[in-house]
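Recall the central idea of this unit: under ordinary conditions, the amino acid sequence of a chain determines the structure it adopts. In this exercise we apply that idea directly, starting from the sequence alone.
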Amino acid sequence: QLQLVQSGGGLVEAGGSLRLSCGASGTIFSINDMAWYRQAPGKQRELVATVTRGDSKNYADSVKGRFTISRDNAKNTIHLQMNSLKPEDSAVYYCYGRGRSTWRDHFQDYWGQGTQVTVSS
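Accordingly, the structure predicted from this sequence is:
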């Protein structure tokens, strides 16, 4: 079974940087789109950045120019480099991937366990 495991995150002062990582483990046949989402208390989960298998990237307007998503297909990992962090970036960040464990499986949505990012003012 395919699993996404996250690492990184934590507490940082405004203007600082953090790096999140997400790796796929278990039985992996293929993973297509991968992304980072975040959810702040009392708010809906929102898309932060996406990256396709072909390395096409998109960002939410609120993070453009500050966050960078990267992907290593050989290692089935993605990273989110977050610079110039603001208090409003505070949230639980989730890794997402759409993939399948074997060629017989349909593509499914997979989520990481979530990691807290807190930016102090």
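The chain has no helices and eleven strands.
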